[in-house]
Amino acid sequence: PSNISLNFFFKLFKNFKKKLNIFELGYIKLDVLRKKKNINYLNKNKSIIIAPTNIYSFKDLTLKDQIENIIIKLLTKTNFDIILRPHPSNRNDIFFIKIIKKFSKYKKFNYDKSDNYQNIYMSSSLLITDISGTAYTYAFFTNNPVIFYVNSEKKLKRLNYENLSYFKDRKKIGTTIKSSNNLVKTIKNIIKNTKNISKRITLLREKKIKYLDRTHVRFLELIEKFWNV
């Protein structure tokens, strides 16, 4: 989808015996979502989405242990509807089943495990996540901000993750928090600054995705170029 991915795969296959042709193609999933975007959603931003990565991957970096605290704070101290959307591999996990039982009595709480997130993304104001890749899909699709829960910056540094574009670009599409204590204040500030963040998201999206909205054209170009090779 991007030059960053291109370089990643070049490094991944640098010792491969056969020569590989790797090309930047475009972000087809984002193209499809943007094509289907409904303008009617734009004035219905009444919810906040909590979307953690797989709770059993990168255990020291997920917001798993903070999910309940975050939900409680949002339910009691904001007027937003709260949508908890787990990683697809965790949809029916006992961990989330317990959370559903605990918060099912709250009308403002919703648990989403649908295959298509288009509607909930477009009807939300912001997304809270940890290190999930959906952060950038969300921001690039909706132009809405993302709050990244940082469980351990020290861990990121030890793993050398802080130098990855995912982490370097976090504040271009939102902000980071280290605990749920300042969550409500952070939400208020980021909502006020949504227009400026939206502009930064647009610039980053254009910079990162060369073939935005042109994936199908780029694909056909590559097919034609290498059809007889």
Detailed description of the structure:
It contains twelve helices and six strands. With 229 residues, the protein is an alpha/beta fold. A six-stranded parallel β-sheet has the order 3-2-1-4-5-6, with helices on both faces. The chain is globular, with a radius of gyration of 19 Å.
Shape: globular
Please compute the radius of gyration using only Cα atoms: 19 Å
Question: H/E order of the elements?
Answer: HHEHEHEHEHEHHHEHHH
The portion of residues forming beta strands comes to: 5-15%
Report how far the terminal alpha carbons are from each other.
Answer: 23 Å
Number of strands: 6
Describe the largest sheet.
6 strands, parallel
Helix content: 40-55%
Low-pLDDT stretches? none
Q: Strand arrangement, largest sheet?
A: 3-2-1-4-5-6
- Tally of alpha and pi helices: 12
Structural class: alpha/beta
pLDDT averaged over residues: 89
Describe the structure in brief.
The protein has helices at 3-12, 28-36, 67-77, 94-103, 118-122, 134-142, 153-158, 165-168, 170-173, 183-192, 194-208, 215-226; strands at residues 47-50, 81-84, 109-111, 124-129, 146-149, 174-177.
List the helices and strands and how they pair.
Elements: H1 3-12, H2 28-36, E1 47-50, H3 67-77, E2 81-84, H4 94-103, E3 109-111, H5 118-122, E4 124-129, H6 134-142, E5 146-149, H7 153-158, H8 165-168, H9 170-173, E6 174-177, H10 183-192, H11 194-208, H12 215-226
Parallel strand pairs: 1-2, 1-4, 2-3, 4-5, 5-6
